[in-house]
Each structure stands twice: as structure tokens, then as C-alpha cells.
Amino acid sequence: TYNRKSSSGLFTYRMPNLYDLWYPFALFELLKIRPRTVIASHSPYITFLVGYTYKCIFPSSTLIIDYRDMWTLSRDYSGLPFFRYLERALESIILDAADKVIVVSNGQASHLSSAFPTVSTNVIRNTSSLETFSELCQEPYSSSKSRPGKFKLLYTGTLYPSFQDPSPIFEEISKLRLSSVICPNSFCLEVVSPQIDIFSSFVDKFDLWDYVDLLPFMPMNQCFLKMQEASCFLLLEDQLTESHGVVTSKMYDYLYVGKPILVHGISKTSELYRYVCRHGFALGLKELPALIDEFTAEKFPHVESFSQVASSRSSLLPLISDSQK
Asked: How far is it, in rounded angstroms, from Cα 138 to Cα 318?
């Protein structure tokens, strides 16, 4: 069972926090340079407190509060019983003092305004640098495991086990394997993540080591080139109300590359789902076999169905060899 807010966030996200030690040093640096505008970005929340203190000392300065992630409205971290009330009071005071409040999605703006009705928000969406992306996509990249005709489902980034459940993905891959729809030479799930150990447990559970390639977290340019190679991207989320305004930055990367996006655990009423459908090609888990069939038909037009090829590994190998010539 995947439960919401399984962690208090103590010392790393909520109060008290190890980043609280930054406060005197950050404030001292601000007082030295005397900026006219301070942009405080969360997390950690201590940036808000430093910016607010500076605003109190210099009321004519401009304080911009920037939410990349929620503070007391976090969908992941509950906070401690006493401190959560103190945090909510501090957040309310800081927001009232701010000259501008920035969020990354309309849903996030609605969520914040419902908790703090007097707050007026401005939406500036997360996005990758298209110039950087364009340059990176010009670079050649070759993977030792890359084969013409191999369908690659790619997941990049962090996994949050408290609300993102990848097990149905692995279960579906296992079913496709058992029904001979896929074979190791024709399908691969690639995972680029710092949490290889979490994904390893699912690979072990479903015995899919021949079908899954676990890669350590890599530099952005290498990751973008991996995305160029992919046939389809995997986007995980959850369906609870707190997530309806969450728009992850990787979505923009996926949309820019322009491949199909397999969405799982995402509510159809969420902003993330609507955005993907509006600007890209979203599909559900049940549509994966058909996408694989279509992919194979494009690579091997003389083959009617991917299932016919995958039913025999030996029949697939000559086709791969021919396509490499």
C-alpha cells in the first residue's frame, strides 16, 4: 500500500531542519550586498525566513516567494505535531509580506490560494532550456545495448515510493514476456535514476533482469541523449487531490523530444494529464502492447505482428542483423 505523507520530513524538509543553520549566514550576506530584490525559492523553507527578515529590515525592498515545491501543503511530508502549526503561521505571515508569489502550475496556484485566500499567485511553469536541449540533441550517442528494432521504454529521475507505484508497469512487462509478446532482443525498460536499489527490488520480484536496464543517475546531457534513443517515456504520479496541480519538469523534457508518453497512476482531471494530452501523445498501460506492435511494424514492414516475431528469438535475430546492414 502506498500511503500519503509517510514521512514527517524532520531535519530535511520540515521544521526543525538542518538548513536552519544557514539563517544567520545567509542574512549576513544579504545585509552586506543590500539587494533591492530578493527571490526566495522553496525548498528549504529557511530561504523564505531569510527573505522575510530582510524585507522587515528594508521594507522598500521587493520580496518574491518562489514555490518549486509546497511547504506546509507538501503532499509528501507531514511535519511534527507542534511545529506544523508554527510553520503554517510563519508561511501565512511571509506570504502576506511578499510582493509576488510564484508557483509552477495552475493547480498549485489553486491549492495555495485555497489554504491562504489572501494570496495572489503568478504561474511560471518549469521548463528546460530549449537552447541547451537543441545543442545536446545534435551530439551522436551510441549505447552498447542499443539494437535496431528494440522498443525502449525510458524512465528518468527520482522515484517517490510513498506515492509512486511502479509495480503495475513491471507486472505488465512480465505478462507480455509470458505471453511471448516481447523478448530481450526486442524490448527494454531503461531506468535512469539515483534509486537503482528500489527498482532492483521490482526487477527481482518479477524476474525481469533480461528486460530491464538500470542505469545510475547521469549528467543532464547524457540523459537527454538517452531520451533521444527511447521509443516511449514512462511518467508516474498518483491520483490524489494533492497532486492535481503537480507538473513535473521532466514532462517538458519528454514533450520536447516528442515521443509517446506512457502515463500511469495519473488522474485524468489533473493538470499534468491534461497538459500531456494537449501537447503530446499520452497512452495508458493497456495500450502498451499495441504501441509495441506499431513500433515493430514500422521497423519491420514485412512482419504483420510483433507477437509473431517475439514468439521465437531465433526468428528475430536475422531481422536485427539485416537492419544493421
From this structure: 31
Cα atoms in the Cβ-side hemisphere of radius 13 Å centred on 311: 6
Query: How many residues in total does the chain contain?
Result: 325
Its pTM stands at 0.60
In DSSP terms, 272 is beta-bridged to: none
Q: Where do the DSSP E strands lie in 46-204?
A: 62-67, 100-103, 121-123, 151-156, 187-192
Cell reading at 17: 531542519
Secondary structure of residue 103 in the 3-state scheme: strand
pLDDT digits (tens, 9 = 90+) for 127-155: 555 555 555 455 444 443 444 578 999 99
CA dihedral 50, 52, 57, 58 (to 10 degrees): 110
pLDDT at position 140 is 44
Q: Give the residue from 151, 159, 197 showing the smallest Cα distance to 310.
A: 151
Burial 248-273 (b: 16+ CB within 10 A, else e): bebbbbbbbbebbbbbbbbbeebbbb
The residues pairing with 41 across neighbouring beta strands, listed in sequence order, are 66
Give the span between the Cα atoms of 172 and 208, in whole angstroms.
11
Per-block average pLDDT, block size 10, for the chain (325 residues)? 55 86 94 94 92 95 91 82 92 94 84 88 70 50 50 89 84 92 91 90 93 87 85 79 60 83 81 77 86 71 37 33 34
The cell numbers describing 143, all together, are 549505447
Which are the contacts of 166, defined by CB distance < 8 A and separation ≥ 6?
A: 155, 159, 199, 202, 236, 264
Kindly state the cell numbers that stand for 227.
531520451
Question: Comparing C-alpha atoms, which of 25, 158, 5 is closest to residue 77?
Answer: 5
What is d(CA 29, CA 46) in angstroms, rounded to the nearest whole number? 14
Give residue-wise pLDDT tens across range 152-191: 999 998 887 777 888 999 999 999 999 988 989 889 999 9
Q: How many CA atoms lie within 13 A of 229 on its CB side?
A: 24
**Residue 182, CB-side half-sphere exposure with 13 Å CA sphere:** 26
319 in Cβ contact with 149 (< 8 Å): yes
Amino acid at 244: H
